Amino acid sequence: QLTDLLQQYATAFRDPMMLQPPEWFKAFIYCEAFLQLPFFPIAAYAFLKGSCRWIRTPAIIYSTHVATTLFAILAHILFHDFSRSEHAGPQTLRERLVLLSIYLPYLLIPLLLLFTMLCNPHYKHVEKRKRK
């Protein structure tokens, strides 16, 4: 069952945010559900088609939004005092780094997307409109 899987994950990796998310984390979950998830099929279409330069602006918005939320999550993992949490959180530096390594790809992939959108000449090219 999914709840059992969630419990196992939270226990194994000492991630209390999954079992009892803080209010700010819940806000990020809603952003993911209503902003980020709808972006995926649109981006998949644009990248699979290959010539869709219009994806640049939505991809920049998406990647900066995700990176911003992940910076807050990673800072929370590194600096929060989890000793008061109802569910077991990371206590040692090693436990914090293990949990950090689970969230880190969710930062790195959007940063790679942002770098691609900003630096790849294919997406930087501006098409000139023909005059009538």
From TrEMBL:
<dbReference type="GO" id="GO:0030867">
    <property type="term" value="C:rough endoplasmic reticulum membrane"/>
</dbReference>
<dbReference type="InterPro" id="IPR051987">
    <property type="entry name" value="Sigma-2_receptor-like"/>
</dbReference>
<keyword id="KW-0256">Endoplasmic reticulum</keyword>
<keyword id="KW-1133">Transmembrane helix</keyword>
<dbReference type="InterPro" id="IPR016964">
    <property type="entry name" value="Sigma2_recept"/>
</dbReference>
<feature type="transmembrane region" description="Helical">
    <location>
        <begin position="60"/>
        <end position="79"/>
    </location>
</feature>
<protein>
    <recommendedName>
        <fullName>Sigma intracellular receptor 2</fullName>
    </recommendedName>
</protein>
<comment type="similarity">
    <text>Belongs to the TMEM97/sigma-2 receptor family.</text>
</comment>
<dbReference type="Pfam" id="PF05241">
    <property type="entry name" value="EBP"/>
</dbReference>
<feature type="domain" description="EXPERA">
    <location>
        <begin position="1"/>
        <end position="114"/>
    </location>
</feature>
<keyword id="KW-0472">Membrane</keyword>
<feature type="transmembrane region" description="Helical">
    <location>
        <begin position="27"/>
        <end position="48"/>
    </location>
</feature>
<dbReference type="InterPro" id="IPR033118">
    <property type="entry name" value="EXPERA"/>
</dbReference>
<keyword id="KW-0812">Transmembrane</keyword>
<feature type="transmembrane region" description="Helical">
    <location>
        <begin position="99"/>
        <end position="123"/>
    </location>
</feature>
